């Protein structure tokens, strides 16, 4: 027994020693062989700190492994450690199975340039070279329980260029068995550049290409799109983030064979010239998808809502803000479909959405609710001599039950118009035929002065009074139009002619005499017929009224003069209008101010309050043009400010702000390709501080000129100047609003009574309600 026990101890000890020796020797041998034959079998250099291999249990561990780029000392892939369990017993049945593979803290980089990807050599090396005939028994390979912990992966594209990465990448998969066609996994990661992350799961059939994907995204930053945007535009910035809870199933081999369900939202979208100047933005675009399946011809949405959208469209002397960004007619958008065209993710997404929506109108579609909330649409036109600005806000658009099976779809739009006015549109459309619809629209309370930039440019005159209304109804069947449109302008009035080289000339006093009716309105019905491709405008009402006025107006001239006199008496007693850049009252205004001073002198209990209402935006634009042209005039004529005469001032005033020589001088001075408007160029040329100081001086001079007449009568202590307000006046001019305390001037009261009487008599009675409705309180 002692001999047997001794023998067993020796045998066991020998086995243990052999196992330890094998393990201790095979681990460094494995490390040595990998590092020696790495380039021969992979084409890449591979290094590690140490390796541990247990051939008896099948456990393998590599520490601090690094795989380098092809023929480079840059790292392609690295990991803190990689461990795996090899099923040893299965080797005897020619089955190679990794029962577990764990990669801790991996880091990898994908680089794309014009020659391809940085791992193309690996794909080529391990791709099968044609059909290999063999009589050997098949070898099976399986890998189960794959775990990737806390990885970080980079993507760089040199051509665009793109620099992007994701972090905290965690993937768990049941792996791939040799007798199974599917791979399933769960994943999660965070955006490396900004905020947000994604998580979800997927299943892929590697034989037929079918896949299923469930993904949840939370405020995932879409900054990567900005880098692709720079390749499509001359300038611009972009930002947005993504929320999603989507389920997708489809096939990699057929892009249209895909079905989406779930929720998708894009938040805090901003796109524009720079971070402070958006061309387009919205707070949230949310889509609730019941089923979107192009192959099955189903586009079923529960709701699509757009919250606080903003869009700004600007016209310049050359092109507009969109074409300056993307090139004329999109020439810089890079839409080439050639095989050598550079990859761009934005174009890929756009083309994919286009492919998905190709069969929309031929499919079964349904949208239970479409809504736009608090929209803001802005239009600026810098091509006239003065900038034209108008804004629709807040815009609300609601459409319920957009369904192909419905007979009609109703859409309503309501919006305010800034600075004055509002718009409503009611649309009823046949969802099976977009050329079959009914529409009713109404634009009201639009000030005539709003259109002064175009009036000055085309006629040399401008409105200082008047209210526009436009309403109509359209009935379109099979593209054929039956439309009635009604234009009404209440109390239009034009100022004296502006003599400027920017402006064309049309004798508007004659035009107004022909088109304005006795009730001091322009009232026309303009039917439209024909079809959508070739509409026909019927202007017989316009021509008939013009001919009528030729014969009727002369006989009613005294009535027109009477109305104008009374209107002027009421108007001048309540407000004092200032001409642009002028600090002295006009001759008629001087007489009125003197009468007001006399009124206070004769009525000791009376007092007045003056509330200055300054149209700062337009006043500063006039100052800007004059001072910029003045500086240009002095420099090009070798003069200084002290030698600048009244004659020189008139020359500068009449000089066009779009003068070719002036523009060339500004361009040479500015040297900035992203300054598109004359206004901005002039601002840089003279400086904003000069404009502000000139504006303040102008307002002081106006105040002094106004009070001068009251000081002469010694009643200036009963004239209170209130705090000035910056406004956009309805009549298009800065003015002093006059409020009376105590006695009212007798002339004002008489004029008020007479005007009320006239408004209730023919021919003004016909438009009494419209006048009351369109009146804007000061």
Low-confidence stretches: none
β-strand amount: 35-45%
Helix content: 25-40%
Number of strands: 33
Report the radius of gyration as a whole number of Å.
39 Å
| Average of per-residue pLDDT values | 85
Name some characteristics of this structure:
778 residues; elongated; 5-stranded mixed sheet; alpha+beta
In short:
The protein is an alpha+beta fold and 778 residues long.
Model description:
The chain is of the alpha+beta class. It contains 17 helices and 33 strands. The chain has a 28-stranded mixed β-sheet that branches. A hairpin with a 2-residue loop joins strand 27 and strand 28 (534-537).
Per-chain topology:
Blueprint: H1 2-42, E1 46-47, E2 50-54, E3 59-68, E4 75-86, E5 95-104, E6 107-113, E7 116-117, H2 120-126, E8 140-143, E9 146-157, E10 162-175, E11 182-191, E12 197-205, E13 210-221, H3 224-232, E14 237-251, E15 254-274, E16 277-293, E17 298-307, E18 310-315, H4 321-326, H5 345-357, E19 364-381, E20 388-403, E21 409-418, E22 422-430, E23 433-447, H6 452-459, E24 463-477, E25 480-494, H7 508-515, E26 521-525, E27 528-531, E28 534-537, H8 540-552, H9 557-574, E29 575-577, H10 587-602, E30 607-614, H11 616-636, H12 646-654, H13 660-670, H14 678-686, H15 688-713, E31 719-721, E32 725-726, E33 735-741, H16 746-759, H17 768-774
Parallel strand pairs: 5-8, 5-9, 6-9, 17-19, 18-19, 30-31, 30-32
Antiparallel strand pairs: 1-3, 2-3, 3-4, 4-5, 4-6, 6-7, 9-10, 10-11, 11-12, 12-13, 13-14, 14-15, 15-16, 16-17, 16-18, 19-20, 20-21, 21-22, 22-23, 23-24, 24-25, 25-26, 25-27, 27-28, 29-33, 30-33
Helix pairs in contact: 9-16, 10-15, 11-12, 11-14, 11-15, 13-14
């Amino acid at each position: 027994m002692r001999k047997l026990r001794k023998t067993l101890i020796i045998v066991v000890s020998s086995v243990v020693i052999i196992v330890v020796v094998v393990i201790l020797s095979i681990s460094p041998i494995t490390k040595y062989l990998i590092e020696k034959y790495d380039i021969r079998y992979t084409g890449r250099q591979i290094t590690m700190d140490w390796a541990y291999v247990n051939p008896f249990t099948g456990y393998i561990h590599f520490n601090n492994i690094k795989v380098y780029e092809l023929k480079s000392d840059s790292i392609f892939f690295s990991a803190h450690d990689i461990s795996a369990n090899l099923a040893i017993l299965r080797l005897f049945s020619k089955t190679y199975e990794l029962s577990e593979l764990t990669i801790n803290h991996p880091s990898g980089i994908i680089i794309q340039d014009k020659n391809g990807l940085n791992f193309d050599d690996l794909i080529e090396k391990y791709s099968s070279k044609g059909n290999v005939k063999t009589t050997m028994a098949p070898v099976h390979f399986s890998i189960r329980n794959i775990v990737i912990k806390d990885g970080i992966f980079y993507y760089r594209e040199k051509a665009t260029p793109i620099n992007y990465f994701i972090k905290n990448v965690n993937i768990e998969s049941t792996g791939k068995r040799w007798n199974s066609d599917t791979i399933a996994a769960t994943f999660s990661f965070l955006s490396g550049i900004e905020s947000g992350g994604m998580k979800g799961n997927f299943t892929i059939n590697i034989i037929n290409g079918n896949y299923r994907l469930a993904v949840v995204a939370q405020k995932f930053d879409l900054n990567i799109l900005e880098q692709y945007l720079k390749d499509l535009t001359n300038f611009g910035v972009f930002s947005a983030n993504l929320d999603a809870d989507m389920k997708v199933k489809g096939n990699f081999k057929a892009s249209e064979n895909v079905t989406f369900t779930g929720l998708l939202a894009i938040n805090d979208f901003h796109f524009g010239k720079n971070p402070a100047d958006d061309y387009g933005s919205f707070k949230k675009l949310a889509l609730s998808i019941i089923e979107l399946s192009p192959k099955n011809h189903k586009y079923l949405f529960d709701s699509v809502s757009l919250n606080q959208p903003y869009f700004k469209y600007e016209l310049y002397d050359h092109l507009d803000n969109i074409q300056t960004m993307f090139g004329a007619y999109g020439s810089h958008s890079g839409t080439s479909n050639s095989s050598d065209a550079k990859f761009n993710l934005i174009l890929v997404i756009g083309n994919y959405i286009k492919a998905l929506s190709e069969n929309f109108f031929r499919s079964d579609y349904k949208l239970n609710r479409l809504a736009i909330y608090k929209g803001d649409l802005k239009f600026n036109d810098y091509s006239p001599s003065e900038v034209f600005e108008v804004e629709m806000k807040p815009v609300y658009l609601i459409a319920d039950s957009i369904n192909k099976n419905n007979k009609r779809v109703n859409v309503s739009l309501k919006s305010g118009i800034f600075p004055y006015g509002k718009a409503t549109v009611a649309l009823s459309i046949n969802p099976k035929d977009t050329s079959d619809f009914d529409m009713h629209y109404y634009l009201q309370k639009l000030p005539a002065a709003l259109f002064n930039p175009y009036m000055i440019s085309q006629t040399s005159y401008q409105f200082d009074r008047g209210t526009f209304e436009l309403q109509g109804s359209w009935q379109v069947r099979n593209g054929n139009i039956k439309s009635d449109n009604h234009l009404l302008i209440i109390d239009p009035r034009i100022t004296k002619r502006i003599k400027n080289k920017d402006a064309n000339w049309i004798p508007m006093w004659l035009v107004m005499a022909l088109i304005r009716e006795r009730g001091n309105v322009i009232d026309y019905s303009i039917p439209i017929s024909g079809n959508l491709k070739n509409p026909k405008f019927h202007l017989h009402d316009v021509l008939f009224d013009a001919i009528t006025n030729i014969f009727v107006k002369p006989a009613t001239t005294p009535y027109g003069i009477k109305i104008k006199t009374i209107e002027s008496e009421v108007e001048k007693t309540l407000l004092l209008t200032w001409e642009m850049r002028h600090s002295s009252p006009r001759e008629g205004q001087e007489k009125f101010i003197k009468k007001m001073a006399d009124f206070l002198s004769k009525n000791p209990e009376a007092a007045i309050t003056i509330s200055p209402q300054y149209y700062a935006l337009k006043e500063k634009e006039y100052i800007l043009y004059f001072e910029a042209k003045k500086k240009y005039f002095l420099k090009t004529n070798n003069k200084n400010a002290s030698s600048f005469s009244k004659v020189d001032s008139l020359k500068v005033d009449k000089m066009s702000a779009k003068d070719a020589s002036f523009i060339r001088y500004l361009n040479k001075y500015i040297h900035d390709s992203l300054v598109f408007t004359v206004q901005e160029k002039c601002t840089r040329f003279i400086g904003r501080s000069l404009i502000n100081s000139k504006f303040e001086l102008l307002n002081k001079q106006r105040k002094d000129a106004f009070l001068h007449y009251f000081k002469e009568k010694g009643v200036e202590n009963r004239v209170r100047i209130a705090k000035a307000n910056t406004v956009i006046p309805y009549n298009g001019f800065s003015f002093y609003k006059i409020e009376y305390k105590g006695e009212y001037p007798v002339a004002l009261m008489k004029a008020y009574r007479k005007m009320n009487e006239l408004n209730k008599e023919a021919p003004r009675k016909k438009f009494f309600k419209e006048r009351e409705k369109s009146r804007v309180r000061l």
